[in-house]
Amino acid sequence: MSSVLTRSGYADPATSLNFKTGSWRTLRPVHKHATAPCHGACPAGEDQQAWLAKIQENDVRAAWETLVNINPMPAITGRVCPHPCETACNRGQLDQPIAIHNLERWLGDEAIANDWPYPNVPAIDSTRPKVAVIGAGPGGLSAAYHLTRRGYRVTILEALTEAGGLLKSAIPMTRLPRDVLDAEISRVLEVGIDLQLRQRLGRDFQIDELGDEYAAVFLGIGCQKSREWSVGGAVPADLHEGLHLLKGWVDHLSMPEAERVVVHGGGNTAVDLCRIMKRKGAAEVTLITASGLPGPDTEPDDVLNVVPRELDEALEEGVVIIPHATIQRLIMRGSRVVGVEMVSLKKLPGKSGRKERIAFEGTERVVATDMVVPCIGEVVDPEGVADLLHGGSYLRARDPFGHLEDHPNVFVGGDARGDRGTVSAAIGDGRLAAAAIDSYLSDTPLPDLTPRPPIPYAGLNLHYYEKKARVPVPKVPPERRTDDLEIEGAVAGAAAIAEAHRCFSCGNCLACDNCWTLCPDNAVIKTAQLASDGSHYLFDYDFCKGCGICATECPCGYIEMIAEP
User: Fold this and answer.
1) Does this model's pTM top 0.90?
2) DSSP label at 145?
3) Does domain 12-33+508-563 fall into CATH 3.30.70.20?
4) Per-residue pLDDT tens for 47-94?
5) 495 to each of 47, 98, 222, 239, how far by Cα in Å?
6) Which of 124, 177, 179, 414 could covalently link to 426 via disulfide, CB atoms 3.0 to 4.6 Å apart?
């Protein structure tokens, strides 16, 4: 006998399913992935939120495996990268950014200590095409690693006697201990990469000779030639160029003696040299840079291009930094410099509309010095690549994948491109070039690099996050710092996991159950397995009335209300 529904009958089991209240809706909730600011700012292409989530689940190895799908050398980048991800981190607007570089370093160190094998590395197939990588710096190592994981046979041709490039020849041990560097490089090479040392481009082989054996070529040759430097045509007789000076110190810990040193530049090499000269006994070390110091009065694109913690440590050690200034005259006694005249700079719109640094008359002042060290950058050595430079200083790629014009099987990445300058950027270049080489050799489309829209701080529901200080990081005090003792200590174990839990999970599902718990119509279904959009929730639009509570109460901005189609 059929029953007649009355008010008292609506509570019978399943009777509510007869009334699909979703027909009242004008707006519907959807899951919308947004780019976390850390991910969008990473030059290597890491998705920090993804591997931080694995740490939150106490699965440290899975976190490392997620990370090395993009960046094979986290123990290195966790130490030397300036980490723009931390500058971009939304958490910094609530209290302090996540200590991303410390956690990245921890994952890399854990993999070395436990000898975790890289995931998804296929066995070498002798029938697959061969690819030549020129240069065993971070860009070349990254390209070789990602090509090997795609099944290609890879040979690295390196001019020096060991792999590493500037990682080994120009980064002080205080920032990057050699045992960590050697271990990370060895592990990358062990995935099946053939390394041939003492093979210099232009001397031992030419690019066009490689075509007989290799189907494609990646150029990770870096910048090995210093820019010419003078002040009004004047050059000290005992000029010491910054990068070569640093290389000499890294090789055999030798440094010219001077009481008063002026370093002219604005990158990590300049700051490293200032600190080394100070430790070697120079009474006064002054860095004169056209860039500005971090702060509210400095535009983001005008900040000194230095790892922030390295800048702080330099100031702790007594280095004097004069921002927004340049050297306009050398004061010479014979052929030796005894002082420099500097002048203040300010960025103002030029005739082209772009901002230019303008010297201000009346701001001149003199700094006495025994030595001036220019650190104004390097350019590509033309040996072996003169035809590709077209008279320029760098190898210009036509897209992010490193394609060179008129050379469909030759790709470039790293410092040689001229628009990079960090280890992480070189690693990112190597990964993208590997994808492009695979596309070229397999005749498949290039990956889509169109970014998802980023989620701003205002897009989060901060009622669900409590303020919590960033994990403290141990450091060697200035008076105990030496030439080979790593200054920054480790964050590991429970402290690292607790720090990962500070992540907002910006724009990605946190699996907090808010939408499922708070929906007044039970229109959110919780799934045991991940849904196709990567969450654990589905919307039952038959019963969702579009009230928007789920979107409002989502802590990480993952739910958006859109117009009913």
Assistant:
1) yes
2) H
3) yes
4) 999 999 999 999 999 999 999 999 999 999 999 999 999 999 999 999
5) 21, 12, 37, 47
6) 414
